[in-house]
Structure formats: C-alpha cells, structure tokens
Amino acid sequence: MILKVVFLLVSLFTVGSALMVVTHKNLFSSALFLVASFFGVAALYVLLEAEFLAVAQVLIYVGAIATLIIFAIMLTRGMMSGRTSPRNDQAAWAGLASVVLGLVLLYVVVFRVQWPVVEKPVPPDTIEQLGRALVGRYVVPFEVASVLLLAALVGAVLIAREKEV
Questions:
Q1: Sequence-ordered list of residues with C-beta below 8 angstroms from that of 78, at least 6 positions apart, any chain
Q2: Which end of the chain has fewer CB within 10 Å, C or N?
C-alpha cells in the first residue's frame, strides 16, 4: 500500500514537472523543471527496482543533457536579457496537435494493444551484459552519439558567442 502511495506521489511530481516544462513562459525555468522531471523518472526507476537505469538517468540526463541545455540557454544572451522573446507564437497549434496525438495514443493503448503480464526472473548479471554490449556490439553507435553531443556543444558555443568587430 505504501509503495502505491509513493508511486502515485512520484508520478504526480514527474508529470507536474513535465507539464511545467511545456507551459512555463520563462525558458530557463522550463529547463529547471526539465531537470526536476528527469529526477522524477529516476525515482520511478528506483521504484521499479532498476537501480542501474536510475543512476544512468541521473548521470546522463540530469548531469549531462540538462546541463548542456541550461548552458545553451545561458549562452544565448539575447534570450536571457529580454532582447528576444522566448515565447512561441504557435502555441495553439502545438496544443491542438498534442491533444490529437494524445487521443490517438490513448485509443491505441486502451483498445488495440493486449498487454500480457508475465513474470520472468531477472538475470543476475544484467549490468555485466549491458557493459559487454556497450564495448562490443554497440561501441560504434555509442561513440557516434558521444561525438554528436560534443559537436552540438561546440556548435552552441560558436553560435552563442558574441561577434568580434
């Protein structure tokens, strides 16, 4: 019973933070709410007894991606000083598209998918298998993703820096 209450509270926190990401007018505050929602997802992983995924969520998303987003926002001085508007003029269209997509997904999940519930034992060496896969079979996509993130960071800094006269 207590686990269900904790799950409900954590999921409400996560969904509330995610809702604040898309509805808040200040871009920097939205990025901070994104960090909060990432922490909420990590807490959900802990509740699902997937501690490795929770740690990876915190290290990768909170530690790297969210920091990259916040630095990119702070480096765009026009956005932070108020010279340009962080508001999107297409909010109504985005809201309509979100509602339609949400209704389609709800229809598919509720009426079209049969969810089999099967309990399987967790292999004891899951993390070891994941590590072997990352340095074996998936080493090239893993390295390509890291180079892509580095290129995005360098590109953001080059775009955001002031022009020399």
A1: 84
A2: C
The pTM of this model reads 0.61
State the amino acid at position 13 in one-letter form: F
**CA pair distance 71, 60, nearest whole angstrom:** 15
Smallest Cα–Cα separation from 77: which of 165, 160, 164?
Answer: 160
Q: What is the pLDDT of residues 106-159, one digit of tens each?
A: 999 988 888 888 888 878 888 888 888 888 999 998 899 889 888 887 887 777
CA distance linking residue 9 with residue 161, whole number of Å? 42
Q: What is the 3-state secondary structure (H, E, C) of 65-89?
A: HHHHHHHHHHHCHHHHHCCCCCCCC
Instruction: Please state, as a whole number, how many other Cβ atoms lie within 10 Å of the Cβ of residue 165.
Output: 3
Q: Last residue of some domain: 85, 108, 139?
A: 85
* Cα 83 to chain centroid, rounded: 28
Tokens 């002031």 appear where? 162
DSSP readout, 11-22?
Answer: HHHHHHHHHHHH
Give dist(CA 74, CA 165) in Å, integer: 22
